[in-house]
Specification:
Layout: H1 2-22, H2 25-32, E1 35-39, E2 42-43, E3 47-49, E4 56-57, H3 59-71, E5 75-79, H4 85-90, E6 96-97, H5 105-108, E7 112-127, E8 142-146, H6 150-158, E9 163-167, H7 170-178, E10 184-188, H8 189-199, E11 206-208, E12 214-222, H9 227-243, H10 245-254
Parallel strand pairs: 1-5, 1-6, 8-9, 8-10
Antiparallel strand pairs: 2-3, 3-4, 7-10, 7-11, 7-12
Length: 273
């Protein structure tokens, strides 16, 4: 009898282990009943706090919200810093990243990327009184960027003899430019367009160097080893493209009725690296 009990216990353990092995993040999210989305909360118009409602809104939030809707669960937003994005994801404190996450080879070795849902022109902002109009003039100069961002990596890669000074967020990086601590500030063109508009007519206007430093596709960040969840996210993005929802969301945050007045010149597609 004792032997039979041992055998039954072992069999039950095997069943539990088999169940655990089959469990995946897609099932976990549905069972938990919410999708925890990591986003910056400080990057208008991608994710930022609405001054009236105090809620975090924006393009990244809308895309992540569409993923949550496709799963049949509500979205819970978690504001994170740029350099905390990948640790928050790999340590399981968020399910997915919608956080200005440009593709880089180094990041792709740590996490999986969804299909690209945005393509970013990375440019450099300079003070108008500096006389700087070309990237060549920034060689050997000081350039600010958000710590841990692809902008920081891009400056080091594309202008290796420049001195890169990093700050915790875009506001601090821009302030360094206004105070003359750096000669340029590298970020997504959209972020820079807004800053340029804000300073036009002020004592310290700024301009954007016309030529892009580099172009990068942005994807949603997914933990490695979650093929079912990654497939669901990609399938949802493709459906958004085919239904026109992706274009509608872009129009809402970047279109003619916004301060950016951009035309969408990309489609959701696989990031090929």
């Amino acid at each position: 009898m004792k032997t039979l009990n041992v055998i039954l216990s072992a069999a039950a353990a095997c069943v539990l282990l088999a169940g655990a092995a089959q469990a995946d993040q897609l099932q976990d999210i549905k069972a938990r009943g919410k999708l925890v989305c990591g986003t910056l909360g400080t990057s208008q118009p991608f994710s930022y706090q609405d001054p009236k409602t105090r809620e975090i809104i924006g393009y990244d939030v809308a895309v992540c919200g569409a993923i949550a809707k496709s799963l049949g669960v509500p979205m819970e937003l978690k504001a994170i810093s740029v350099d905390a994005r990948i640790p928050e994801l790999t340590q399981g404190r968020v399910d997915i990243l919608a956080a200005n996450l440009g593709w880089t080879k180094a990041r792709s070795e740590q996490i999986d990327y969804s299909y690209s849902y945005f393509v970013s022109q990375q440019k450099i902002l300079v003070r108008r009184d500096s006389g700087i109009t070309t990237l060549e003039q920034l060689k050997g100069q000081k350039i600010s960027a958000v710590k841990g961002s692809s902008s920081e990596q891009g400056v080091k890669r594309e202008i290796p003899n420049a001195q890169t000074l990093t700050y915790q967020d875009g506001s601090a990086s821009f302030l360094a430019l206004q105070q003359g601590k750096v000669n340029g500030f590298c970020a997504s063109e959209l972020v820079l367009v807004k800053l340029k508009e804000q300073t036009d007519g002020s004592a310290n206007p700024v301009d954007i160097v016309k030529k892009s430093l580099f172009v990068e596709p942005w994807g949603l960040g997914i933990r490695k080893g979650e093929p079912a969840f990654l497939k669901h996210v990609n399938d949802t993005l493709v459906k958004m493209e085919q239904s026109g929802e992706a274009a509608r969301v872009f129009e809402e945050w970047f279109g003619p009725a916004t301060a950016y007045k951009l035309e969408r010149d990309f489609k959701i597609e696989e990031i090929k690296g």
